[in-house]
Write a structure and sequence with these properties.
The chain has 324 residues and is of the alpha/beta class. It folds into 2 domains: 178 residues, Quinone Oxidoreductase, Chain A, domain 1, CATH 3.90.180.10; 123 residues, Rossmann fold, CATH 3.40.50. 29% of the residues lie in helices and 26% in strands. It has 9 helices and 16 strands. Strands 3, 5, 6, 7, 8, 15 and 16 form a 7-stranded mixed beta sheet that branches. Strand 15, helix 9 and strand 16 form a beta-alpha-beta unit. Helix 2 packs across helix 3 and helix 2 crosses helix 8. It is globular and about 60 Å long. The N and C termini lie close together (11 Å). The mean pLDDT is 97. Bound molecules: NADP nicotinamide-adenine-dinucleotide phosphate. NADP nicotinamide-adenine-dinucleotide phosphate binds next to helix 1, helix 2, helix 3 and helix 9. The site of NADP nicotinamide-adenine-dinucleotide phosphate has 30 residues, from helix 1, helix 2, helix 3 and helix 9.
């Protein structure tokens, strides 16, 4: 029986309710997918809670990345056929057993990559790709700081940073997460639950600071993140797991002629050529086994509320996969 986990209104994790769905024929340019695996993302928490505005009046199906099999084709679909293994990332709509979706957002999953790995790495891996190649082009010799290094995006970014030859400093809370971040390639890991990360970064860099800070934690780590930068350094604010930054002033950047950016993955993925290029790069890294440590705990989709609670309590390491 096709079903979705939908929220009738913004709320806590109990707001996600199992509901049967009608499978309509896909519209022109769309395909119908049966989901095999769905990735859990902090973005889903922002939507579920109402921290991000809903794109619908009510009954929002949350969920932002998934992999599955094409089961039906609408008219005008030329690049995909029934039986293709595909994956996608979209802001919402993935917490379902099936969905109709535009062919423009789909990428084919190569043989050799499991559904669970595709579903738990596409949003996070494309994010790591643009952060490290476009928000700040990381090169050998650079030293960077990456917060929440044991999380979903963080654990992929650590592995990617290793392959780029940069010195990667990660932050994570607690012994187990710090150990996981080291395992994902961060050469230096700071437990920012018990250590002052600004002091530790200064110590590690001999007082110089880092070339770039990748900050998805937000309120709790800004302005410490700015203090870790060397002159002309770049702060990439790409999330707000601890809440939005409310005390930013443009004059803060004058302390070191810094630059700051607040990028969003979906602005990149609108460009089909970019999506294909970045997905090829990600899947290539996975097939070469340069990125391999991402899929963590698995939950049945019906128990997604439990997974949300764990993510919000900071009890998740790596990526979570939901199975419909
Ligand atoms: N802008 C974009 O394009 C884009 C794309 C993807 C993801 N993101 C952002 O990147 C971040 C990581 O996403 P993810 O899905 O991979 O999540 P995640 O990193 O697996 O989970 C978030 C982590 O943030 C840390 N954190 C710090 N303060 C927290 C708090 N008060 N509450 C909860 N967590 C807190 C926790 O790690 P510790 O316990 O180790 O501190 C937690 O594990 C999120 O902020 C997300 O919104 C942005």
């Amino acid at each position: 029986m096709p079903f979705a986990m939908l929220a009738p209104r913004p709320g806590n994790a109990d707001a996600l309710i199992k509901t049967g769905i009608d499978l309509l024929a896909p519209a022109p340019g769309e395909v119908q997918i049966r989901h095999a695996a769905i990735g859990l993302n902090f973005l889903d928490v922002y939507y579920r809670s109402g921290a991000y505005p809903w794109p619908v009046e009510k009954d929002l199906i949350v969920g932002s990345e998934a992999a599955g099999v094409v089961e039906r084709l609408g008219s005008d679909v030329v690049d995909f056929t029934v039986g293709d293994r595909v994956a996608y990332t979209m802001p919402t709509g993935a917490y379902a057993s099936h969905r109709n979706i535009s062919q423009n957002v789909l990428v084919k999953v190569p043989d050799g990559i499991r559904d669970e790995d595709a579903a738990s790495s596409l949003l996070k891996g494309l994010t790591a790709y643009y952060l490290l190649h476009e928000s700040f082009k990381v090169e050998p010799g650079h030293t960077v700081l990456f917060h929440a290094a044991a999380g979903g995006v963080g654990s992929i970014a650590g592995q990617w940073l290793s392959s780029l030859g940069a010195t990667a400093i990660g932050t994570a809370r607690g012994v187990a997460k710090c150990e996981a971040a080291r395992g994902s390639g961060f050469q230096h890991v700071i437990d920012y639950g018990s250590e002052d990360f600004v002091d530790r970064v200064k110590q590690i860099t001999g007082g110089l600071g880092v070339d770039a800070v990748f900050d998805s934690v937000g309120a709790d780590t800004y302005p410490g993140s700015l203090k870790c930068l060397k002159p002309f350094g770049r702060l990439i604010c790409f999330g707000q797991s601890s809440g939005p930054i409310k005390n930013f002033a443009i004059s803060d950047l004058a302390a070191g002629s810094f630059s700051v950016t607040r990028p969003v993955l979906f602005h990149y993925t609108r460009d089909r050529a970019w999506l294909e290029k970045a997905a090829d790069a990600l899947f290539g890294m996975i097939l070469k086994e340069e990125i391999g440590r991402f899929a963590g705990e698995t939950f049945p989709l019906e128990r997604v509320g439990e997974a949300h609670r764990k993510l919000e309590r900071r009890e998740i390491t790596g990526s979570v996969v939901l199975i419909p």
